[in-house]
UniProtKB/TrEMBL annotation:
One of its GO terms (molecular function) is metal ion binding. SUPFAM superfamilies: FAD/NAD(P)-binding domain (SSF51905). This is FAD/NAD(P)-binding domain-containing protein. The keyword Translocase does not apply. It comes from marine sediment metagenome. Transmembrane segments: none annotated. Keywords: 4Fe-4S, Iron, Iron-sulfur, Metal-binding, Oxidoreductase. InterPro entries: FAD/NAD-bd_sf, HdrA-like.
Amino acid sequence: ENVVTTLEFERLICAGGPTDGHFVRPSDGRTPKRIGFIQCIGSRAYKRGHPYCSNVCCMNTVKDGLLLKEHYPDTEITVFYIDIRAVGKGFEDLFMRSKKMGVRYLRGLPDHIIEDPDTGNLRLKVENTTAGRIEEFEFDMLVLSVGLEPRQDGEQLRRILSLSQTSDGFLAECHPKLMPVDAPTRGVFLAGCVEAPKDIKDSVTQASAAAARAGVILSASKIKLEAATAVVDKEKCTC
């Protein structure tokens, strides 16, 4: 009950959320003092989940840690990770800022979680791969940094438009470098997470490129269309 996803966490800490911005545990309504974030839930997981990186999870956790420290500076925050991928503009600065504010980053993921039936606290063991030892922790709450995956109803759209997809289930572009927003189907362009996991900035950039590519077709003085042709279905023909 005290294990939530990052989306649920942001609803709890949001002023317009169910608790009016007061961050409390779902089980008893108390403000948690020790919180753990576990990265790469469902991502970079070859046996249980998807092998790809979901791109946005690391910086989302950095942002959530900063929010917690700003509102609850005495909260102990520990982030369990494989790699922190702070590759965007200003991302490394945010990461270092969160460390200076007291967020602890430990390289290693827990294998299982045990809930104390009396207190509702969560216990776990983690192999600290940096220090080379097993460490035990107890938290009031755990936040799972879940990854991104393609929409389940996207398969129907893909079939209607005769689009290609990657092995991960995302729509495939013509060429990742030369035609990154063009779908193999002429006149169809890709933008956002339909093509791969990405953040808002990359989605907006890709959408602008897709709009520009569509504008090239629409600005042409003449648009070539396939001529309508009749097809005889011999099975239905009564001639």
